[in-house]
Amino acid sequence: METQNEKKILLSAVQPSGTPTLGNYIGALANFTKLQNDYSCIFSVADLHSITVPQDPAKLRANTYDLLALYLACGIDPEKSILFNQSHVSAHAELAWVLNTVTYVGELNRMTQFKAKCQSHADNINMGLMDYPVLMAADILLYQTELVPVGADQKQHLELARDLALRFNNRFGETFRVPEPYIAKTGARVMSLAEPDKKMSKSDANVNAFISMNDDPDAIMRKFKRAVTDSGSEIRFGQDKPGISNLLTIYAVCADTTVEQAELEFAGAGYGTFKQRVGEAVVEKLRPIQERKQKIAQDKAYLTKILAEGASAAERIAYKTLRKVYKKVGFVPRERM
Ligand code: TRP
User: Fold this and answer.
1) Of 53, 324, 332, 19, whose CA–CA distance to 177 is shortest?
2) Does residue 142's CB lie within 6 angstroms of at least one atom of ligand 1?
3) For the chain, is the Cβ count within 10 Å smaller at the N or the C terminus?
4) Residue 195 and residue 217: Cα distance in Å, rounded?
5) C-alpha of residue 158 to centroid of ligand 1, in Å
6) What whole-number distance in Å separates Cα of residue 4 and Cα of residue 307?
7) Is 119 exposed, middle or buried (0-12, 13-18, 19+ CB in 10 A)?
8) Considering 8, 199, 275, 293, which one is annotated as catalytic?
């Protein structure tokens, strides 16, 4: 595909369901800013995905603006990257439909996340929930994406996107680029503060288990004070120390240091002091982001402009792929007269 430059296309999306956590920040958002210098980045607010579980419409709208403001506050530059709202580009839903016809029900039935959501949303196992990975494949394939940064929980979905691209290409001729996972060099994975063998999640029933990007300093300090530690008293990274290791990871990122340096820094210190220092580092890391975000969030005209421009830029690429797909499957092209 022709692009204005030689940079590889990297795409990522976040659902506007609830406020992102410190885990989302460290695992994804913090790296996006750096990525946009090396890649042609496309960042999307995946609102179509979010309605696969019940959303309050007013909250969904607010969360969408909030996430957009957070993306911008974290340093995503709309001059460098495409930032848009998924539902603004109807090609996503359109390509998902076509991809549905090359996806096997059995494939979707086997998806780990679908099975988990069937348990957690037993009263609402809707088709969207099952079709979620196909829509995600459409997100990726529409832009001829080369790289998708994925955490462990999204690996299987990316694998499906690759399978669908290959299957479609085999059946109809070369159409999609087959995407690859982008593995970040610093693979920091942030765990729950209450159960450090679980990923930090914004949907955790225990609010003390996660730091929301909107948490104020008091809440942050309180949550770190309560954070679960391990037996022993050593501040050391290791499999036998999931709680302390998680805190060291968080500290290293937020205090701009390394885990090794942090171990030296806290040699001989007690857990109490350590947790306090981690909390302070997080407060200081989030403060400027929260301040920027608040300013941006108040400027609705600016957000509207960003969304409008982002949608136009995304649409140009997306429809080029969709037209190709429609042609390949044999649809008569629409002519305008
Ligand atoms: N399913 C992803 C998540 O919850 C969000 C997402 C939607 C996504 N479309 C995508 C991620 C495309 C990467 C590429 O994390």
Assistant:
1) 324
2) no
3) C
4) 22
5) 9
6) 21
7) exposed
8) 199
Gap between the Cα atoms of 103 and 132, Å rounded: 12
Strand (E) or helix (H) holding 9: strand 9-14
Residue 186's pLDDT is 58
Mode of pairing for the β-strands spanning 180-182 and 9-14: unpaired
Which residue out of 8, 185, 202, 225 is catalytically annotated?
Answer: 202
What band does 203 get if pLDDT is binned at 50, 70 and 90? confident
Indicate if ligand 1 lies below 6 Å from the C-beta of 136: yes
In whole angstroms, what is the distance from residue 23 CA to residue 247 CA?
12
Q: Which amino acid is at 316?
A: R
For residue range 51-101, what is the model confidence (pLDDT) as tens digits? Answer: 999 999 999 999 999 999 999 999 999 999 999 999 999 999 999 999 999
Q: Which amino acid belongs to residue 105?
A: V
> Residues 81, 13: contact at Cβ < 8 Å?
no
Angstrom distance (rounded) from CA 122 to CA 96: 24
How far is C-alpha 220 from the geometric centre of its chain's CA atoms?
Answer: 22
pLDDT in tens, 99-118: 999 999 999 999 999 999 99
Of 252, 287, 285, 283, whose CA–CA distance to 266 is shortest? 252
What is the Cα gyration radius of the chain? 21
